[in-house]
Amino acid sequence: MVKEIERAGLPVVHVCTIVPISLTVGANRIVPAVAIPHPLGDPSKPFEEEKAIRRHLVEKALKALQTPVSEQTVFND
Amino acid sequence: MGDIISKELGIPVVSGMFPENPGVEMYRKSMYIIETADSARGMGKAVPAMARLLLKLLKGEKIGLPAEEGYIERGLRINKFFDRMASERCVDMFVKKLKGEPFETEYPMPVFDRVDPNPPIVDMAGSTVALVTSGGICPKGNPDHIEASSASKYGEYSIEGFDDLTSADHCTAHGGYDATYADNDPDRVLPVDVMREMEKEGVFKKLHNKFYTTVGNGTAVASAKKFGAEIAQKLKADGVDAVILTST
What we know:
The structure holds 2 protein chains of 2 kinds.
Chain A: H1 2-7, E1 12-16, H2 19-25, E2 29-32, H3 47-65, E3 73-74
Parallel strand pairs in A: 1-2, 2-3
Chain B: H1 2-9, E1 14-17, H2 22-27, E2 32-35, H3 43-59, H4 66-69, H5 86-99, E3 128-133, E4 137-139, E5 155-158, E6 170-172, H6 180-184, H7 192-201, E7 206-207, E8 210-213, H8 221-237, E9 242-247
């Protein structure tokens, strides 16, 4: 899906847990997520802390969308 | 696991995978992968082929070409002596091609389907951002019956008026992982709460009022490709500038 959205001309960031799959699929902007059942959250943390993790990931995703890339790029911290 | 066992312990490993499995691209060079069907129904055929190949490996017998043994091409080149020179074989192939006859190449070219990255967003504060997910988040009750595995469709749903997704209004249709966390707080997969906050703060202009969703679990690449292309056209028609796609 991510590649078809890119092909249509829309910049897209893939926030995903299994980065190797994203690389195989062909995403160009990749932000690694937390875990498979809760990619943008962590139920072991108190709610406010969990939300801060989510916010941080979304901020990274938006930053990735504003970053010029020429090849597949994984945005780590 | 097979990769580590074969590399570190030197124990021969044979696996079986459906050709669309991402594991094929990742590990076909490290081990023999027998081509299987896309469901357990194909095991009757796959397991004997795996056993046959493994026995050959154990006995140190010569392993044949992918088509002979039933394994997925590993992308390895093996030297082979021919009776005829390369130039002759090449011209033969070319003549066959001109005649429209079938011929078999000695070196298939790899197929790379890559899309170049689009230029970045320059004016985020003036942009509309959409959320798309393969994590199966949908309105509670999954009104369009998106399948828990091998999805045949995607959903398009409004998030107009939603500042936060909760267990009262949304859930996940995704099988294959423990859905408890996503069902209890769907923002863990589709971060509507944080996106709304940032929209209010003016980080970007607008969160697109619709989101698109499907289940990535076991879904055929051809289906995902079709969903992606359709979703992209709809997003473009609605004036969306950028997309955040979340996957479990």
